[in-house]
Structures are given as structure tokens and as C-alpha cells.
Design a protein that fits this description.
The protein has 5 helices and 7 strands. By secondary structure, it is an alpha+beta fold. β2 and β3 form a beta hairpin. The longest helix has 16 residues.
Length: about 160
Amino acid sequence: MTARAAQAAPADENRELVLTRIIDASPEALFRCWTDPELMKQWFAPKPFTVPVVETDLRAGGASLVVMRDPDGNDYPNPGVYLEVVPNQKIVFTDAFTEAWAPSQKPFMVATVTFEDLGGGKTRYTATARHWTVADRETHEQMGFHEGWGICADQLAVLAATL
């Protein structure tokens, strides 16, 4: 297979998990909820988890850190790097790097979040998690991807509607 053919090959859908919602909020409001650390703290983890720390350097190559805390006080840091940021349209990030292109110990996924303006104050919100392996996708699914990311999308929609 040539390099050009490899680039054109479709993504392995067996490694992806996707959540799509129509949300009653503008792409601008949703993007703001995804990029303003104080807003992210309000919706980014399914309750009763909290998000005490959010750090963002919102640019390709910029580091991010989101710390989720469970009800028992255990923290789950999620460092990563932004790969692409298109204001009000798309955010792509990964845990494959931690900061300044330093590789993480165990890359798990690349996430792509898109905000498609449907007009009338509605947005098609799509969150895609593309995993390195089918086993990683299965692990993420067993961890409750659909339920957890669904709860977060509901929390996001409620918050975005207030902006």
C-alpha cells in the first residue's frame, strides 16, 4: 500500500465510539462550555463526580489537564494535548501526549468534538472517541462511555442553554 493509499484508507469504525445529540444552544455557546475552564468544571464529569481542576492552552499543541474527582475524594487526572481547534466548529484532542509533545505512558484515544449549526438556535453536537485498539474501545465502552458521555452531554446542554 502506498503512503497516499494509507492516508485515504477509512478509519477503523471498530475502534470508535460516537455520541450525537441535537442541542438547543448555539455552536458558540457549546464551544465556550468546552473551552472556558470555569464552565467546564460545571459539566465535564457525570455527577456526582466533580471537576476541581481544568487547565487549557487552547491551540494545536497546547496542553490540557482535567481532573475528575469521585465522591470519595479520589482524583483522576486526564492530561492531554489539543491537536486542532476551530472556534465554534471543532476541537480535537488526545491523551497520547501530556504536554509539549511528551508521549504519555499509555495512549488511549483521540477525541473529536464537532458543533454543527442547524439554525434556529440548535446544534448537532457529535463527540467521537477513536481508540488505538479495539480492546481500548471495548474497555471504554465497558467503563460506560455511552452513559457517562451522555450524562455529560445532558449537563452540557443545560449549561449552554443558559449562556
